[in-house]
Amino acid sequence: MVPALLTPYSADLEVLPRFTVGRVFSDWGIDPIPFVVTVWAVGLYVLGVVVLHRRGDRWPVGRTLAFVGLGMGSFFFATSSGLGRYDTTLLSVHMVQHMLLSMVVPLALALGAPVTLALRTLPPAPRRWLLAVLHSRVAKVLAFPPLAFALYVASPWALYFSSWYDASLASAFVHEMMHVHLVLVGTLFFWPLMGVDPVPGRVSHPFRVLLTLMTLPFHAFLGVTIMGQSTIIGEEHYRELREGPMGSWLPPMLEDQHLAGGILWASGDLIGVLFFAVLFTQWVRSSMKEAAREDRRLDLAERRAPTH
């Protein structure tokens, strides 16, 4: 028997019924790697929260909801719902999944501050190991903002304009690892920008806003490029599907690709603008707190000044 991970993915594709928005929420399946990642990440995070509560410390509910609900919830939804079932059947569905994994999930995980939670709950030895990793040269290089920005911007171009996407359509293992890769690259870029966790690569608020603004044209340009080109991404795979039973309902390949490019363009700009608003709000609040601290310092200095 051929191992499942080595079996061509296209040979294992089910004959799916016509895609509808309702099937996104009603058609579910389990992919091994994303499922295991979800269970472990949620389990460890919840364990950390429980440890804090048992010793009388508080942990913001909003952070738990961000990590477990929005972050890992979106990861599981993107890979196991109807999006995961149809992501190799329609490029447009894959593109929705792509944006969830590369933008929504990393942002939500960063807001959950899992590194801070780990540092507060781990035993001494594992805590030292985590600090060693955070302070290592490898972590500092990977989190270096220009490098993280380049990886984040270049990854989707490499995915759709190389043999990588075709490989993800031909192998279940490569396909699932692509999902993990999208989250990891998004995490490298967005985590330091959020500034919640003590991770390397954190920069000042003006630079965070600048980096966020710089991502917007790249998403738009990639989306427009995909919409405008006549070459079909993953053409062999999608043509094979249309020669089978699903050909009766699948849209023309070029039409679906145009829709996929539009989804990438619109959703990238929308999420980017929302993230920009969050960063700008953080910047304003930080400036206000700094001004308040400076006022208190000046008031204290004035009270301590000798009177004549």
Summarize this structure briefly.
By secondary structure, the protein is an all-alpha fold. The protein has 14 helices and no strands.
Described by the principal axes of the CA atoms, the overall outline is globular
* SSE series: HHHHHHHHHHHHHH
Number of helices: 14
Query: Helical proportion?
Result: over 70%
Number of strands: 0
Word description of this protein:
With 308 residues, this protein is mostly helical. Helices cover 75% and strands 0% of the residues. The protein has 14 helices and no strands. It has helices at residues 21-26, 32-54, 61-80, 82-86, 91-111, 114-121, 124-134, 137-142, 145-160, 164-170, 172-194, 205-228, 235-242, 253-304. The longest helix has 52 residues, at 253-304. The radius of gyration is 23 Å and the shape is globular. Mean pLDDT is 83; it is low at 1-11.
How does the SSE layout of this entry go?
Elements: H1 21-26, H2 32-54, H3 61-80, H4 82-86, H5 91-111, H6 114-121, H7 124-134, H8 137-142, H9 145-160, H10 164-170, H11 172-194, H12 205-228, H13 235-242, H14 253-304
Which key phrases capture this entry?
308 residues; disordered N terminus; single chain; 14 helices; mainly alpha
